[in-house]
User: Fold this.
Amino acid sequence: MPAGTSDWYSYAIVRVVPRVEREEFLNVGVILFARARRFLDVRIELDEDRLKAFAPEVDQAAIERHLEAFRAVCAGSAAAGPIAALSLSDRFHWLTAPRSTVVQPSAAHAGLCEDPAAALERLFASAVGPDAR
Assistant:
């Protein structure tokens, strides 16, 4: 793409929802998809101490497994099974489909950027990083 060209992207926040019925959540990551740039990536960081304070009864190992599955599907890793072999667009839509589990995506949002990796880092910092708390 020519320098200075902005393209649309879609993103969703990855959340840990320990008690789904209460709808309380902790932001732990961001998934970003930019079709024109052929870009799909996720940035996830689980603050275990914060999660323990937020939901001491939660199975952190199970949450880590769920988050690792998000990473593997996003990366197209064969370890993630047939879903990882789908197109970038299909994987993004699968990752951001509504679900009633302990790890959930937010609704998808859109934006414009020249550099999707930089946009992912900016969104992560504003939604998950230490300054977001």
Remarks:
- The first strand starts at residue 7 and ends at 16.
- The two ends are 35 Å apart (CA to CA).
- The chain is about 30% helix and 25% strand.
- Helices lie at 48-54, 60-75, 88-95, 116-127.
